[in-house]
């Protein structure tokens, strides 16, 4: 393996300025340029057509993010690259092509060199162990932690320049990187010590980032599938984690399937099971619809039991495990969210032009990478978007964000102190869900009036 990371220094000059593309403003081009520089694209070389190289780099990057491939900095490109992402480059150096490599053995050892101060040691160790299990569940690979020596894969936290050309700066734009299989640095995972690492949806979830970086440690490059673990942007939303089929197919192409495959976890949900959580909940024409993995659960007032079926049966063009959904009754639409994308649906059809990004459609800033929950207040036409501990308010009539937002959820919805996983409206109440807990919030009194278990909707 290379003694240095994948990224090589080339094409370096601090004084070079990019030309302005016909369909992109100078600010957009500079944003793209800074992204490439952050990945170590050192702009200096002899006898190299810099514009030609940059156009190719942009084409590669756009392809990595599933954008229209133009070679120019179009309106979508800056929004995509401003999201937090893995430090392994999406844009390969000039005239260099990297092929997937793999370990020549199936039993690998790992060691943890040091820890983040933001999590207990046991939590760090558990997150890392679960991340290894993501890959051992679907391959013949086994992993064993060692203590007296360095493992094949060494996981460690670093600050700033730590000797491998992937310098950290605590800016949230580059928070971790990993090296492909091989001796020396091969397989190692580095985290930015200055970032706040968590075991929830705040900042950077250690389990999710580790699982992604270990994909690189095992030989995978980034995926173009936005639902894949190996997609370059950080998209953790604290929902139940299921490894995407794209990830499974690519890792099994290197190592083969597991001799003892794990049975799929997305079995038909039991609405009355204790602690059941949901991916999204919305109303639609008087019904309440709960979404879980690839299933939906319809609550119909005149039926004694809810109806359960696969989402594909009604909405075959929607992604699996959606993040949020709401009913825009003014235009008779359902809107579904996954990452930074929105799908608008009428009856069974996704409308033309969708999916599109939430930034251009609603006006969210580029820092918003996902929606936790959403609900439209029927009487006012105001839609509330909940993201972490804040919320935005959007006017469906003017199709614009209301000024003065975001605001703290806890300030305007007293008693709703946890992150909002799901929300919908029935009559004068918002129904807030956090995990399996439900809070009924009255919009007139601005108070919580009840907190029944979520199973109360299913006549259990």
UniProtKB/TrEMBL annotation:
Subcellular location: Secreted, Extracellular space, Extracellular matrix
InterPro entries found in the cross-reference section: Hemopexin-like_dom, Hemopexin-like_dom_sf, Hemopexin-like_repeat, Hemopexin_CS, M10A_MMP, MetalloPept_cat_dom_sf, Pept_M10_metallopeptidase, Pept_M10A
List of residues binding Ca(2+) 2: 152, 186, 188
Protein name: interstitial collagenase
The Peptidase metallopeptidase domain, residue ranges: 99-257
Hemopexin repeats: 319-365, 368-416
Binding site for Zn(2+) 1: 162, 164, 177, 190
Residues holding Ca(2+) 4: 279, 323, 421
Pfam family, one: Hemopexin
Class of enzymatic activity (EC top level): hydrolase
Residue stretches in coiled coil: none
Residues involved in Ca(2+) 1 binding: 195
One MF annotation (Gene Ontology) recorded for this entry: metalloendopeptidase activity
Highest taxon of the lineage: Eukaryota
Sequence positions that bind Zn(2+) 2: 86, 212, 216, 222, 230
Lineage, highest ranks first: Eukaryota, Metazoa, Chordata, Craniata, Vertebrata
Cofactor requirements of the protein: Zn(2+); Ca(2+)
Keyword rRNA-binding on entry: no
S-S bridge residues: 272-460
